[in-house]
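Worked example

This section walks through a single chain of length 155. The input is the sequence exactly as stored; nothing has been trimmed or padded.
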Amino acid sequence: MKLKKNIILICCVIIAALGTTLTGCGNSNSDKDAANNNVNVETKSETKDEPKTETKGDDLYIGTWKASVIESDGEVYDYEENIGVYEITINADYTVTGKTDDETHDGGTWELTENGLKITDPNGISAEFIYKDGELIWDLEMGDVKAKTHFVKKQ
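Given that input, the structure is written out below as tokens.
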């Protein structure tokens, strides 16, 4: 049981650290990057028969998402109770703002993917989130440690 708790602790620390990195500090190219992402997303949606991707981006992703639970080794843990507050705000201009406890981080960008979205920080580090059943799910694998963080949209 102690080994299981250690794995969860390690996983939580990794996810918290990566979460802070994903929404990193701002840079002067973030407006330019967001504009480029906007063009790419529009191009992708125009090549499909349905504007489903564009609708998903506008209707489902825009807003603030809060990490609610983390799954690891078949167990589910409350995120805030075990790690702290982690929120991601997805903006209509394809920028991302992150909040961890009392810190706010600007400068990230996002783009639509086939199953959800990809968030990239100003340093080029990115993570993919899958949209499923009203949640954004970040699936992380590092060696033998596997974890999924679930984000729910704040009302």
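What to look for: The mean pLDDT is 73.
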